[in-house]
Write a structure and sequence with these properties.
Strand content: 5-15%
Strand order of the largest sheet: 7-6-5-8-9-10
Structural class: alpha/beta
Number of strands: 10
Helix content: 40-55%
CATH topology of the largest domain: Rossmann fold
Low-confidence stretches: none
Number of helices: 14
Distance between the termini: 33 Å
């Protein structure tokens, strides 16, 4: 388990037959959320706490339990739960969605503080609670464990059968619809028409999803230009970033800024992102290539970077300086401390 000074990690028990809860709404996640509710309730019964910090749907759990135990809570909004459920289509029943929305709204209204990660969520929070309680604390680049001994970008190229001279375009993340994986795959044929040596490395997704998109790539005639690696351990991410020439975020839905954007910028590699609020509330054309979520527009942005190494360097450096200047651990820590100093 992870070891953090002055932090005690308590986990819920694994539910037999469920395994790991997938990303996004699922039956497994609902069951684990209920298990977490019971766990937190027991901790509140057997211990004395000054506050509850509830992240995502656990903000609703914090609201429900604070009513009984009279403990102030912080609602940490990494996303708008109601929006997430609508995008995913997990709940299609309007009554259920309305009930979830009412619960989320009540959790915002009654929180001692609400932490948001982007302007869109800040605007939502301010609709339901006093502006002084809302604190926008953006994410910062992710810190990864040290890479495995002997690992290198050159060796990774060899493992994936990528020629040393081939430009690498990298996507990391899940394969949910909102991530724009279909847009990415559909853009590849347009790119390889002009850059036949380009290799797209796609990290993430489960085996079934990887097989599905592998077949699509094959049908599009670009299988030789795509490498599906499946999930990879976090310690390998710096090696993948080092190997890449261009990074991708083709997200087509959503409102919160993806966490990986901060990490991407920190690498100093140029980023191609869709020109949508999920990205533009953080990014601008000085620090990223922004393109409409259409295959011709998105592929054109990738090709422009492939053809212009000076532009790649300029945008990559600007992005790195931007995130190091405004989104670092010191700033993040100071903002969190400010929330708790004013907690009532």
């Amino acid at each position: 388990d992870i070891d953090i000074p002055n932090v005690t990690v308590k986990r819920v028990m694994k539910i037999p037959g469920l395994g790991k809860a997938p990303i996004g709404p699922s039956k497994a996640k609902i069951l684990y959320d209920f298990s977490m509710f019971i766990k937190v309730k027991w901790l509140l019964i057997t211990n004395k706490y000054d506050a509850i910090h509830g992240v995502e749907e656990m903000g609703v759990t914090a609201w429900l339990l604070s009513k009984f135990f009279r403990v102030p809570y912080v609602f940490d909004m990494d996303s708008h739960i109601t929006d997430q459920l609508r995008y995913s289509g997990f709940f299609k029943d309007g009554f259920i969605l309305k009930t979830v929305e009412r619960m989320e709204t009540s959790a915002i209204k009654n929180a001692s503080a609400v932490v948001t990660v982007c302007p869109y969520l800040t605007d939502i929070a301010k609709r339901y609670t006093d502006e002084s309680k809302v604190h926008q604390i953006e994410d910062i680049p992710q810190q990864f464990p040290p890479p495995p001994a002997g690992a290198s970008a050159d060796k990774l190229r060899g493992e994936l059968n990528i020629p040393q001279s081939a430009p690498v375009i990298l996507y990391t993340g899940n394969f949910e619809k909102y991530q724009g994986i279909d847009l990415l795959i559909e853009s590849i044929p347009e790119v390889v028409k002009s850059a036949p040596d380009a290799i797209f490395v796609i990290v993430g997704g489960d085996d079934t999803q990887a097989k599905t998109y592998s077949r699509i790539a094959e049908n599009l005639g670009v299988a030789r230009n795509v490498r599906f690696t499946g999930p990879r351990p976090l310690e390998w991410m710096p090696i993948f970033h080092e190997m890449a020439d261009i990074l991708l975020s083709p997200r087509i839905e959503g409102t919160n800024t993806p966490l990986k954007i901060y990490t991407y910028l920190k690498t100093g590699k140029p980023l191609v992102a869709t020109d949508l609020p999920t990205h533009t509330q953080l990014l601008n054309r000085d620090i990223a290539m922004l393109a409409k979520p259409e295959k011709l527009e998105y592929s054109s942005a990738i090709l422009l970077l492939l053809k212009d190494t000076a532009l790649r360097g300029k945008i990559g450096l600007a992005g790195k300086e931007f995130v190091e200047r405004g989104y670092n651990y010191t700033i993040f820590k100071d903002k969190i401390e400010s929330v708790y100093k004013n907690l009532k």
